[in-house]
Structures are given as C-alpha cells and as structure tokens.
Amino acid sequence: MAELLEHGIGPVRTCIGCRKQGSRSELVRLVAQGSGSSAVLVDERRRMAGRGAWLHPSEKCLALAIKRRAFGRALAGAADTSAVERYLMPDTPLVEATAATGKPSKPESGSEN
C-alpha cells in the first residue's frame, strides 16, 4: 500500500456493485442514515460519520449492488436506496416508488365482483 501512495494514486476503494477497485475520486461514498433508518445516503463531501461503502457512479454498478444485496451487507442492514438512485439517475422515475404502493395495476382475474 505504501507503494501506491508513493506513486500518487492514493487510497484504493472497492465498488460494492462490480467489486472492482478504484481511487476515491472515481467512486461515490455511501453511508447509512442511522437512528434506526434503513436509508442509504450519498456522502458527496466524503465527510459524514460512520462506516462508508463505495460505488462507481453508474447505473450498471447500482443495479449490480441492488441485485447482490450489497447495501445491506456493507452498511449494516441499510436497504432503502432511493436517495442513491435519485443521485445517480436524476431524470429517471424510481421503479420502487410505483411498486411500493402495493396496488396491482389491473385487478386480478375473478376479483371484479
């Protein structure tokens, strides 16, 4: 690790999505909100207290991290990734928001009575 610092690369972090290593400047730091909440927050300034996880700022890595359930493992049970999704994909509506209502889009067959 001392060799990396001598050459100016700096600290190396691992993306929780693709599991590839990169420098701090290439990755986004994420932290759990705390106080019993399961929300994951983006630490833009990289100064928030608590354990952090790192993610490449790409939809691909976000999707991989969600699929692998990496947020809950890296951040002690944190699972609500809506803030991260809004940060990485600001123009895309959240898929979870429509699924969270619990109402089917069409009534089930035979339930029209």
Indicate the structural class.
alpha+beta
- Strands, count: 5
Spatial ordering of strands, largest sheet: 4-3-5
Indicate the proportion of strand residues.
15-25%
Please compute the radius of gyration using only Cα atoms: 18 Å
Order of helices and strands: HEEEEEHHHH
Q: Number of helical runs?
A: 5
Summarize the biggest pleated sheet.
3 strands, antiparallel
Averaged pLDDT, please?
Answer: 80
The geometry reads as: globular
Q: Report the helical percentage.
A: 25-40%
Cα-to-Cα separation, first versus last residue: 68 Å
Spans of at least 5 consecutive residues whose pLDDT stays below 50 are 1-7, 96-103
Give a short synopsis of this structure.
This protein is 27% helix and 20% strand.
Overview of the molecule:
Helix content is 27%, strand content 20%. The strands form 2 sheets. The protein has a 3-stranded antiparallel β-sheet. Strands 1-2 form a two-stranded antiparallel sheet. β1 and β2 form a beta hairpin. The protein starts with a helix and ends in a 14-residue tail after the last helix. The longest helix is centred in the middle third of the chain and has 9 residues. The chain has 113 residues and is α+β, with helices and mostly antiparallel strands.
List the helices and strands and how they pair.
Blueprint: H1 2-6, E1 12-14, E2 21-23, E3 28-34, E4 37-42, E5 52-55, H2 59-67, H3 70-74, H4 82-88, H5 95-99
Antiparallel strand pairs: 1-2, 3-4, 3-5
